[in-house]
Amino acid sequence: MNCPYCGSETNEDALVCAACSRDIAVPSTLIAERDELLRKREALRDELKRRRSDIETIIRRRKSR
Ligand SMILES: [Zn+2]
Predict the structure, then answer these.
(1) CA distance 51 to 4
(2) How far is the CA of 18 from the centre of ligand 1 (A)?
């Protein structure tokens, strides 16, 4: 079995990778789900950034009136 994070060889029953110390007892379905959630989080951060700059633009326009 190889560590899904760093690719190092690990023991079959190891809970933690000896090379990178990450938790490898997690099933790969959960790892995929986590990656998906991380992607969504990044997308939401981008969205938030855009909305914030929209709001700042609106506020600036109101002040200049
Ligand atoms: Zn590892």
Answers:
(1) 36
(2) 7
Kindly give the distance from the C-alpha atom of residue 23 to the centroid of ligand 1, in angstroms, as a whole number: 8
pLDDT digit string, tens, across residues 13-53 = 888 999 999 988 877 788 889 999 999 999 999 999 999 99
The residues placing their C-beta within 5 Å of ligand 1, an ion, are 3, 5-6, 8, 17, 19-20
Q: 9 CA distance to ligand 1 centroid (A)?
A: 8
Q: Which domain holds residue 58?
A: 1-65
Q: Count of domains in the chain?
A: 1
Place of tokens 């760093």: 6
Cα 25 versus chain centre, distance: 19
Distances (CA, A) of 21 to 14, 44, 55, 59: 11, 29, 43, 48
